Amino acid sequence: MDIVEQLTRALPGIVRTDAASLEACRTDRSGHLSSGRPLALIEARSIEDVQTVCRLATATATPVVSRGAGTGLSGGGIAGSGEIVLSTVNMTAILEVSVANQLAVVQPGIFNGDLNRALDEHGMWWAPDPASKEISTVGGNIAMNAGGLLCAKYGVTREAVLALKVVLADGRLISVGHRTVKGVTGYDLCALMIGSEGTLGIIVEATLKLRPLVAGSVSTIAAYLDSVDTGAGIAAKISAAGLQPALMELLDARSLEFLGNYTGQDLRARGNAYLLIQCDGAAAQAEAAAMMEIIHATGAKAESTTDEETANQWVEVRRQVFPSLEAAGTLLVEDVAVPRDAMTAMFDKVAQVEDKYGLMIPTSAHAGDGNLHPSFVFQGAEVPEEIWEAAGELFTYALELGGTLTGEHGIGLLKKRWLGDELGETQLLLQRQIKAVFDPDGLLNPGKVLDPLGQGGPAH
Amino acid sequence: MDIVEQLTRALPGIVRTDAASLEACRTDRSGHLSSGRPLALIEARSIEDVQTVCRLATATATPVVSRGAGTGLSGGGIAGSGEIVLSTVNMTAILEVSVANQLAVVQPGIFNGDLNRALDEHGMWWAPDPASKEISTVGGNIAMNAGGLLCAKYGVTREAVLALKVVLADGRLISVGHRTVKGVTGYDLCALMIGSEGTLGIIVEATLKLRPLVAGSVSTIAAYLDSVDTGAGIAAKISAAGLQPALMELLDARSLEFLGNYTGQDLRARGNAYLLIQCDGAAAQAEAAAMMEIIHATGAKAESTTDEETANQWVEVRRQVFPSLEAAGTLLVEDVAVPRDAMTAMFDKVAQVEDKYGLMIPTSAHAGDGNLHPSFVFQGAEVPEEIWEAAGELFTYALELGGTLTGEHGIGLLKKRWLGDELGETQLLLQRQIKAVFDPDGLLNPGKVLDPLGQGGPAH
């Protein structure tokens, strides 16, 4: 009996083998397409289902790609021929909300946005806010250690997860982390799982650290500036002054061009860069006033508001960037992060690489935490090698600045070739050995992030 | 040539073999004494010194115990016969403070308190604040994932470290983590190192995430209450209301008895429990007022102040707890953490165990995060087995409540026998395998936290 037959008998009704289901698993929002169609898609309903799939996969040496909503930007959830896809997207229950303990226990398939709407009535929220939050799952957010717009003030996903239940490649279930705020029992395998991109285990339940809703009104600032360097300089001054914006976003001139074409407004007439800031909490108005002073001291002009509708219009400009790029072709969103005071240098490098390769690289930045998204628009499904070369130059420079290849999108398939540049050979080998501890047969998300011991990579 | 001779030739002037130096390394603030005197103490001055020691140790199969200031409470930094001690306490330099990037790069031997005084002039601080901060090192804080009083609002050490340089058992140097706020390149080995208690590598440099100093005055609340249950109930209500005290400490009646004997004040005449709260930041006064309402609604009385001197007196009551216990005998401070709303149940269990064993177990709690310190005072150096039995009952109950053996002190030697109860056999084996990846010869801090593969523990 082949693996698909075995799965179908063991898990009747949840094993899909129709062409549409399988084709959808060949890609994600990176646009990358796997080499072939996977064998089956299993839509797990429970931890036991996931254990059953893993046991059968191990017994038959079949690779398993775990998948949430398929919104990844680095090809981490893509499945190819000979592989089975284990989806947790139907496991959407909120098992517990404890206001007293400021935590929620959830299944991995719930969408981030749906969770936050449910938490709202308890006066709580879960801080990770990737741009994809309305269409991405909590499990996927955890598997990628998702970031978003609010990280400088409210932290990344790693800081918002207390504990996980994880099914190992062979079907065994472990509980890692703690239900408590503190806990130092042994190695922090919960943190190790967060951002492991489906290569160490399948996340089947999460205990999330919640925050009380932030009280008071939000102050919003918008500024069209003469250059993105001015914007990066203002952002650096705001951070250096110890002010803590909830959100601080910066768009360059190219982004405004694409946005203008998309929305029909001549945004370039307003400036060569757009800076958007929001302050929340008890100090919001005072902090916004201090930021306006910093902006005015540079000679730039800015507007501020506490009116929600006006603020939403200003935020919408930022939200439309990626839709405007996607409307123009296939989109590759890069994701370097650099120390906050190196943002100007990174923007300058983007301009140099644009010139060298004759490309347009619209770039937006989470300016509060130095995370830039240089973006490439092209025609067709495959990223042209020239664009990878240009992106590679940006990666190398980000590393020279003390930064990283990927602030929040992960390595997946698309950045694997640069991983060793950042980690160094010794650490890369350690990481491959850790992979072998959890998944000795190399069955979980093979080919993603790093090569198993015995395949590719540096000598070992 | 034996290892001590080799070390002395390779590292002239920093290898101590005098009795006083070696005897001091046989214990820490847990009071536990190792079985014998270590071979040598090496006081490293640089990363290269640490690498040299590790290379020689690996070449001669000599165990290495890394050590900071020896303030650990679980025996994690204790060295015995046949072992060498690698101290980083002389590596105290602050290599960089970047206000713009809100980070500092430091050597591991600097004291937490000294670092924070140096950061103060930059308008920044490092949040971890173990009670030992004036006498404990940053490297030690990281090795133990130290907690302290401010964790509920400002997080534990793991949330305050961006990157580490680590020397492996064989002398190789790796850099883990990121200088940036975000970064998702491969597995999070920086988080794995934090709290690893010297068993995976030697921390030789740390890039710390700083915070801007909190502006405004601090509001302090003190209340003597009729029972510790009342205090735990108030603390739970404050958390459930979404209020965020910077510090919320609770002392039981026994603690007040010891404190009274030590300070000559009749604190028990004032109440059977003491609750201390501090609020900081822009919302401090409003939050303190809301907390006073919660307290008054229970029928209890409390005082509040924004006067610094009065506040210091109230805080001093809390600070004197452990000195008052140490004055009465040898002190074993236990360290369970439970979900916030289970604190009352945990205090009740302490009272039951007191009765059952005829012991006094003064207990203080970081009530903002559910971390309780049931404490045992006895005569002599060895913890009587009866006290371990009583402590074991508390551990078991904390686990039943969804809590942990250790909120902030670590496993070290003293809690090793209970580790498997919390982790389960599968996870314990994974942890031992991870240990083997980093330290295949089992030379780093042997016998601490977990047994190497091939020794003790469950089958593998």
UniProtKB/TrEMBL annotation, chains A, B:
Q: Which Pfam families does the UniProt entry name for this protein?
A: FAD-oxidase_C, FAD_binding_4
Kindly list the cofactors needed.
Answer: FAD
Q: Which UniProt keywords apply?
A: FAD, Flavoprotein, Oxidoreductase
**Which InterPro entries does the entry mention?**
FAD-bd_oxidored_4_C (IPR004113), FAD-bd_PCMH (IPR016166), FAD-bd_PCMH-like_sf (IPR036318), FAD-bd_PCMH_sub2 (IPR016169), FAD-linked_Oxase-like_C (IPR016164), FAD-linked_OxidoTrans_Type4 (IPR051914), Oxid_FAD_bind_N (IPR006094), Vanillyl_alc_oxidase_C-sub2 (IPR016171)
User: Does the record's keyword annotation contain Oxidoreductase?
Assistant: yes
Q: Which stretches make up the FAD-binding PCMH-type domain?
A: 34-213
Q: What is this protein's name? A: FAD-linked oxidase C-terminal domain-containing protein
Q: What is the organism of origin for this protein?
A: Paeniglutamicibacter antarcticus
